[in-house]
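Please check both lines for our workbook:

___
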Amino acid sequence: MANVAQATFIAADVVIECDSRWDCCQREQAKNKVEHMNAGLPGAGIRANVPPAMDRLKNATQRNQKLQMLAQTRQEQAESAEAAGASPCMVEKLRNGEAGNYQMDHPLDVKWGGPPRGPPAPVTLIPRDPVVNGAFGSFAQHIGDKMSKKSPPITQVQSFSLICPPSSPGCPNQDQSTGPRGQQPFPADRHPAHITRVDNVSLGSFLVLP
C-alpha cells in the first residue's frame, strides 16, 4: 500500500486503494463510500460530460444540505448523518463536535451516474471527511473520463472495490477492504496520471492510474 490513495479500472470494475496514512475513521468512511456507490449502481451510467446546469444543481444541493446540517445541534447532526447512512465514526465525530470541515457527499457521484438532486425526490447527501471525499471525487472525474474515452467506450461501471488492509501508521488493526476485487492485489502496472490535493492544502494526495 502506498502513501497515496490510488484508483484504476479493470474492464468495467473500478478499483481504489487507500492511502496508507489514512486513519481508521477515514478508512471506515472510504468503505462506507464504496458500499453506497455499489448500492447505487447502475444509476444513469457514466456521464462523459456533466452538463453545467447539472453541476450547478449538484453544488447547490451540497451547499444547501451543509447549511441545513450546520443549523442543527450536534445531536441532531449525528442523527441526520446516521439516517443518511454515514459511517458510525463520522456519526460519533458529529455528536462530539469533532467532525471538522466535513463535506456533503453524493452516495453515487454524479459522474458515475448518480442523481445531482432528483427527480423524483432530492437525494440525501452523506457527511464525509474532506480528504476521503476529495479523493473519491477526483477518481470519479478522471477514471470516468478514461473509461468514456476507451474504444468502445465503457458506459457503465460494473462494480467498485476498495483495497484497504491494515497499515502503519494509518490504521494497523483494521481491514476495510470491500467489493469483488477488494481482496486482490492492486494492479502492478502503476503509471500515475494525475496528482492533486484537497482545497490546495496538504490534507492528502491521490493518484489516478490508467
Remarks:
- The chain is about 35% helix and 15% strand.
- The CA atoms of residues 96 and 127 lie 14 Å apart.
- Residues 189-206 have pLDDT under 50 and may be disordered.
